[in-house]
Design goal:
With about 375 residues, this protein is of the alpha+beta class. It folds into 2 domains: about 250 residues, 3-Layer(aba) Sandwich (Aminopeptidase); about 130 residues, Alpha-Beta Plaits (2-Layer Sandwich), CATH 3.30.70. Helices cover about 35% and strands about 25% of the residues. The strands form 5 sheets. Strands 1-2-6-3-7-17 form a 6-stranded mixed β-sheet. A 4-stranded antiparallel β-sheet has the order 11-13-9-14, covered by helices on one side. A hairpin with a 2-residue loop joins β4 and β5. The protein is elongated. The two termini are about 30 Å apart. The mean pLDDT is about 95.
Length: about 375
C-alpha cells in the first residue's frame, strides 16, 4: 500500500519532472502509474506516435457506473530566457506560496487529485472518479484527443468532467475558440532600385495585416459581445512575421501568422473568408499586374473549439454545490474543455491557482488554493455519491 502524500508534497514531486512539451513526460506518467498501483488502481496509458509521451486514464470505483472525470495536462511551458529566483524544477516555498514551473498550470490540480486518492477510494463506492492526465496541451491540446478516445470506450458515459486549469477555484462555463493560420505572401524578386519590376511580399503582407487589424477594430466596436468574457468580443491577432533577405532586394516571400479567438457561436470561418476576400479583391490585383503568379496562400495551423455549457446544467450544479458557490465565469484562454464538450462530456473548468501566474518566471500557487481544491474535490466526490 502506498503511503498517503499531502498535496504540497505531491506537487513537489511533480514539479521535479521536467515535462516541458518538447520533452518526454514518461517519467512523470510512470511515477503516477506506480503511485496509483500502490493503491490497487490500474492505469491505462495511450502513447504518441513515437512512444515518447503518454496520457494516463484511471478509474477509482466501479467502472460500469457514470462518474466524474478530473482532467489535467502533464506538460508545462519552457523556462528558456526567463529569469527565475530559484530552480524552476525544484518546488520552493515562501510565505505561503509554492514556486515552480507548472505549480499553477496545472500540476497543483493534478497533485491535489493524486493526494486525495485514498479518500476517493473510500467515497467512490457507487460513483467512480476518473483521473485523466494528458500530454501536449500547451502545444495545441494534442494528446487529449487520444485520451478522449479511451474514455469513449469506458463502460459508462461520465456524468461530468472538471478540467482543473487555474481559475482561483471559480467555476468556468465558457471559453473562446482558438484558430491559428499561416499566411504566405508570394512576391516577385527585383533589385530595390527597380521596385516597379518587383512585387514586394513584405509590403503585401503588411497591407493584409492592416486589413486584419481593421476587422479587429470593427469587432471591438460593433461586436457581437458577451460580457462574460474579457475582452467581451472575438479578437484577431497577428503574432509573427518573417520576410526579406536584404535591404536592396525586393522580397519575394513573407510569412506571418494570425489567430482568431472567437466567442461561442461566432463562426470563425466567416472572418477567414472576409480576410481572404480582402486579399483577393484589394491587394492581389496590383500584384498580378506585375506577375500573375504572385498572391497569398492560407494554411490552417491548428483549431480548437469554443465551449459553453448552460449554467443550469446538472454538471454545473454539481460543481457549484461542491464549491458552495453560485457565481460562474468565462475565460478567453484555451483549455481542453472544448474537446471534452465536443465528445459529449459535460465539462466545467475549475482549479486552484491564478492564470495570471501561468507561463511566467517565478510561477507560483498559494497553499491556500491547494487547501480549497482539496475541500472542493472531497465534496465533489461526496456530492456525486449522494
Amino acid at each position: 500500500m502506498t503511503a498517503r502524500i499531502g498535496s504540497a508534497e505531491m506537487l513537489r514531486r511533480l514539479v521535479g519532472f521536467d515535462t516541458v512539451s518538447r520533452n518526454s513526460n514518461l517519467a512523470a506518467i510512470e511515477f503516477i502509474r506506480d503511485y496509483l498501483d500502490g493503491f490497487g488502481i490500474a492505469s491505462r496509458l495511450s502513447f504518441d506516435d513515437e512512444g515518447r509521451k503518454a496520457n494516463l486514464f484511471a478509474t477509482i470505483g466501479p467502472s460500469d457506473q457514470p462518474g466524474i472525470i478530473l482532467s489535467g495536462h502533464s506538460d508545462v511551458v519552457p523556462v528558456d530566457d526567463q529569469h527565475w529566483s530559484s530552480d524552476p524544477f525544484k518546488l520552493r516555498e515562501d510565505e505561503g506560496r509554492l514556486y515552480g514551473r507548472g505549480s499553477a498550470d496545472m500540476k497543483g490540480f493534478i497533485g491535489t487529485a493524486l493526494a486525495l486518492v485514498p479518500d476517493f477510494k473510500e467515497r467512490a463506492t457507487s460513483t467512480p472518479i476518473h483521473l485523466a492526465f494528458s500530454y501536449d496541451e500547451e502545444v495545441g491540446c494534442i494528446g487529449v484527443n487520444r485520451l478522449i478516445e479511451q474514455i469513449g470506450m469506458a463502460e459508462a458515459k461520465p456524468l461530468a468532467c472538471v478540467v482543473g486549469e487555474p481559475t482561483e477555484m471559480k467555476p468556468i462555463v465558457g471559453q473562446k475558440g482558438l484558430h491559428v493560420f499561416r499566411c504566405h505572401a508570394h512576391g516577385h524578386e527585383a533589385h530595390s532600385s527597380r521596385t516597379s519590376f518587383g512585387v514586394n511580399a513584405v509590403e503585401a503582407a503588411a497591407e493584409l495585416i492592416a486589413g486584419i487589424k481593421t476587422i479587429s477594430r470593427r469587432l471591438r466596436d460593433e461586436g457581437p459581445f458577451d460580457d462574460g468574457f474579457e475582452p467581451p468580443y472575438t479578437t484577431l491577432h497577428c503574432g509573427t512575421i518573417h520576410g526579406g533577405a536584404a535591404q536592396n532586394i525586393v522580397p519575394a516571400s513573407c510569412n506571418f501568422t494570425f489567430e482568431i479567438r472567437n466567442l461561442p457561436g461566432h463562426d470563425p470561418a466567416l472572418l477567414v473568408a472576409e480576410i481572404e476576400r480582402h486579399a483577393r479583391e484589394q491587394i492581389e490585383p496590383e500584384m498580378h499586374a506585375v506577375d500573375p503568379t504572385t498572391g497569398f496562400t492560407f494554411q490552417p495551423r491548428n483549431g480548437l473549439p469554443d465551449y459553453e455549457i448552460a449554467e443550469d446544467h446538472p454538471a454545473v450544479a454539481l460543481v457549484k454545490r461542491a464549491l458552495g458557490a453560485n457565481a460562474v465565469g468565462k475565460v478567453s484562454y484555451m483549455t481542453e474543455a472544448g474537446l471534452f464538450g465536443r465528445a459529449g462530456i459535460p465539462t466545467v473548468i475549475c482549479g486552484p491557482g491564478d492564470i495570471a501566474q501561468a507561463h511566467k518566471p517565478d510561477e507560483f500557487i498559494a497553499k491556500e488554493q491547494l487547501a480549497r481544491c482539496e475541500t472542493f474535490l472531497l465534496r465533489l466526490a461526496e456530492s456525486a455519491h449522494t
